[in-house]
Design brief:
There is one protein chain. By secondary structure, the chain is of the alpha/beta class. It has helices spanning 20-28, 71-86, 102-114, 135-144, 161-171, 189-204, 238-245, 250-267, 287-292, and strands spanning 6-13, 46-51, 55-61, 89-95, 118-123, 149-152, 214-223, 226-235, 270-279. The protein folds into two domains: 6-171, 3-Layer(aba) Sandwich (Rossmann fold), CATH 3.40.50.300; 189-292, K homology (KH) domain (GMP Synthetase, Chain A, domain 3, 2-Layer Sandwich), CATH 3.30.300. Strands 2-3-1-4-5-6 form a six-stranded mixed sheet, sandwiched between helices. The radius of gyration is 20 Å and the shape is globular. Bound molecules: guanosine-5'-diphosphate and magnesium ion.
Length: 297
């Protein structure tokens, strides 16, 4: 290993829905974190390991920072805040078209307090033809906080992402390669499977259903070249259970099919996926349930 090898943690933080998880996946060059058009998709901190010749960047995707209501949201926001405090570098992500508001104020105050050196990236610039239009936003942010650098990107198209990576790598501290280079995450396969199922629920249900859903994998084992995955989808009320299962079980079948296809693609194995729906009243409000479902340490 070269003497000037760099490594460290980079916390990706920002308001909900600006593209943090999409950016993580883009930086890694593969899908690790789930992505949906709905805010508050990410609930846990997710480590993505990016190893290059001269550095190993430990990217931490986080839930969005916003004004939380119920207990799960509070835990999510705490997770994001704590991650920023623990990281070597911050990557504050916002999106083109979004004016700084209360969530941004919270994050900027946090940056000042945590003293984590931070790069600002403005995402979704694919929506923007004339890049000069970014200048007022860059100006506003620069007056509010001393960022290491401001980089416009599109996590969707990849525009600016290599430049962003270079800026981040430049500010990484010197350090060893902590993880083997072929390793891209620490998340167990069970967690990743549960997340894929939850993504399909988010994509195929509306209203409050996605927010009332949690997924836990109960069984994950290989037998005769087939991977058996048994998972429970938890909801808060009977009515939600009914909607999720759908007429003649159609909705749940559809969710199961999409989840299975993605799992088969990822694992390159034949999957037998069994989904159950259970009611767990007010799980979003209860610490013990949040711990059971993996949202609290
Ligand atoms: P997060 O909540 O910050 O993690 O945001 P996600 O990564 O889940 O993305 C939220 C939504 O924004 C999804 O519909 C993404 O497809 C979309 N999105 C993310 N990055 C971009 C981008 O660079 N350009 C555009 N147009 N959409 C994006
Ligand atoms: Mg996310």
């Amino acid at each position: 290993m070269a003497a000037d090898f760099k490594s460290g943690y980079v916390a990706i933080v920002g308001p909900p829905n600006v593209g943090k998880s999409t950016l993580l996946n883009r930086l890694l060059g593969q899908k690790l974190a789930i992505v949906t058009p709905k805010p508050q998709t990410t609930r846990n901190r997710i480590l993505g390991i990016l190893t290059r010749k001269r550095f190993q960047m430990l990217l931490l995707d986080t839930p969005g920072i916003f004004q939380p209501g119920y207990r799960l949201q509070k835990v999510m926001v705490e997770t994001a805040k704590r991650t920023l405090g623990e990281a070597d570098l911050g990557l504050f992500l916002t999106e083109w078209g979004r004016e700084p508001g209360p969530d941004e104020n919270t994050i900027i105050q946090l940056l000042a307090k945590a003293k984590t050196p931070t790069v600002l990236a403005i995402n979704k610039v694919d929506k923007l033809k004339d890049k000069k239009l970014l200048l007022p936003l860059i100006e506003t942010y620069s007056q509010r906080h001393q960022f290491l650098s401001v980089v416009p990107v599109s996590a969707l198209t990849g525009e600016g992402v290599e430049e962003l990576l270079e800026v981040l790598a430049k500010h990484l501290p010197l350090g060893p390669q902590y993880f083997p280079e072929e390793m891209i995450t620490e998340s167990p396969e069970r967690f990743l499977a549960a997340e894929i199922i939850r993504e399909k629920v988010f994509l195929r249900t509306g209203e409050e259903i996605p927010y009332a859903v949690a997924v836990k994998v109960d069984e994950y084992k290989e037998r005769d070249h087939v991977l058996y995955v048994k998972a429970t989808i938890y909801v808060e009320r009977d009515s939600q259970k009914g909607i999720l299962i759908g007429q003649k079980g159609r909705k749940l079948k559809e969710i199961g099919r999409f989840a299975r296809e993605e799992l088969e693609h990822n694992t390159e194995k034949k999957i037998f996926l069994e989904l159950w729906v259970k009611v767990r009243r007010k799980w979003r409000q209860k610490d013990a349930d949040l711990r059971f479902l993996g949202y609290r340490r």
